[in-house]
Amino acid sequence: MTVLPTISSAYVLAFQFSSWYPKFASNSIKSTVIRPLSAEFVEYLNADGVIVPEGSGLEDTSVREYSSVEPDEDVDEDEEEEDAAKRYAFPELDQQIRKAIEEYGAVFPKLNFSSPKDASWILPPSAPLKCTSPADVYLLLKSSDFISHDLSCDSVFDGCAEPDSCRSLYNLELVLRKWYSFDRGRECRCFVRNDVLLGISQRDMNYYEFWNDPPTQGTIIGTVVRLWETVIKPKWSSGQHYTFDVLLTRDLSRAHIVDFNPYASRTDPLLFTYDELWEIHEAGDDEKLPVLRIIDSRAHPAANTNAPANQHNMVPFEALSIASGRDIDEFSQAWQEEVKSSLHDD
User: Fold this and answer.
1) Host H or E run for residue 256
2) Mean pLDDT in runs of 10 for the chain (346 residues)?
3) Which of 82, 110, 177, 201 could bridge across to 115 with cysteines, CB 3.0–4.6 Å?
4) Beta carbons within 10 angstroms of residue 7's beta carbon
5) Helix ranges restricted to H, the chain
6) From CA 215, how far away is CA 248, in angstroms rounded?
7) Angstrom distance (rounded) from CA 186 to CA 220
């Protein structure tokens, strides 16, 4: 055995949402899986620019398409055809999304593996990732860098021993999970190697007093171990190495399964390193397992600063509106005009 196990493409596919959710639905967040997705929708996700499809509830969002053409200006016929080619509409998918929203009240989306949490800033900060229309769903997906991982078989099967063997089995899926407000401080990531629960890591990299209370730590470990031994271990059939994320209830007595991920370098080990997890495994001291890692002070080197999460992916909202449907040159010109206009107004 080595620090990280060899992974196969079949192993990776076991972690896409539709593979594990049916087994664990009663212990997870209510969700709807839409698959397969049309080739046109996949093309839309891969297309440059943030364009909200027609008929998706654009009027319910703050984004409006920006046009630099005056009503009386002549428009070249070729330009009209080019603009028309950039427009998308997905009435059937819109209907499926609206049905899920009607059932759950609101949803947050993800694809097979990745969620657009890096684009949460695009919706109201009081309710990050909360989608109440198809337009919200599309806007989140199109504004995210994270979901690009799921759009390419090369990235999905990166690091696999035989990356081409399951390409034909991979189909993009849209997952709509019931949205509700929760405290991210109650999330944790758990690491299983060779069917042994090695470690539990606080997932949100902020300091929380309750994580540092010894009796509370014992309660959290007990809750996670109980869930793993009674629910996850008996049902998980896709290998002896995996990670799983859970959300603890307010009283910390129960936990809901949020996600499963491969035991591989692509999965963030958070407050561990995979070398450390390997050392814990090799020590073989089962009485000390699982090891709990937390942010034990505000000065902890891994503790978050006041900088917003995923700030690298943030742009001014006005820039998003202006960028809709434009290539980089058109956007640059339109943005310069907007800046000049703002300076003039000031």
Assistant:
1) strand 255-262
2) 93 97 98 96 92 80 37 49 69 98 97 95 86 96 95 93 83 96 94 98 96 97 98 97 98 98 97 98 92 96 65 48 48 53 51
3) 110
4) 22
5) 9-13, 17-24, 39-46, 77-85, 91-104, 134-142, 153-156, 214-227, 233-235, 274-283, 317-323, 328-345
6) 16
7) 9
